């Protein structure tokens, strides 16, 4: 069984995000970039499934320029068997990403395509669901526990009311939630070994995917600074203030 894991290059979650002075985007020059944390959790779960003997190969894939090779090498150092870079300099939106991973699924025939539930840069939470629709396969989103038995996966998923447990037939699309696991620490010897693992580069044309810009961002701006709070003397005064601010 193969598992395909999608990883995205994002600004590290420990870095304070700054908007460029001209409002054209987020500042990335000299900023630490990492694997999207939810994608890292998805990769860790795929590696654990393989280590339990329930999968033979874990493949990681990322979309972008040569800079994404850094994150692919990190994924290889974590334990992935091989990596695929889908090379493009164009901005990739969720639907295009879903089409890319659908093409890779057709090419690699994985039993599971694992993604993070969302990326921390755009918070779209769309790619996994779109991929399931395009691939015409079941989906198990927001997974907090995954158990594989034969050709069936039992997935506990985070929902507003608590936990929901579902069964899906494989092949399937899964997206990881925060509580699924804690990713392993990458050691220096593993980083050195990762340099010898195969990293394949494909173009969008080779996969038959045309980048489509469905949404265009015209300007970026930081959120307004929070104003200081103040104390009130009673519950009635609190209710009055909330009404005055349009919150009730």
From TrEMBL:
Cofactor(s) the protein needs: AMP
Domain of life the protein comes from: Bacteria
GO biological processes: carboxylic acid catabolic process
Domain spans labelled Electron transfer flavoprotein alpha/beta-subunit N-terminal: 23-211
Transport listed as a keyword: yes
Entry keyword set: Electron transport, Transport
SMART domains on file: ETF (SM00893)
UniProt keyword annotation of Transcription regulation present: no
GO MF entry, a single one: electron transfer activity
A UniProt-annotated Pfam family: ETF
Entry similarity comment: Belongs to the ETF beta-subunit/FixA family.
Quaternary organization: Heterodimer of an alpha and a beta subunit.
Function: The electron transfer flavoprotein serves as a specific electron acceptor for other dehydrogenases. It transfers the electrons to the main respiratory chain via ETF-ubiquinone oxidoreductase (ETF dehydrogenase).
Protein known as: Electron transfer flavoprotein subunit beta
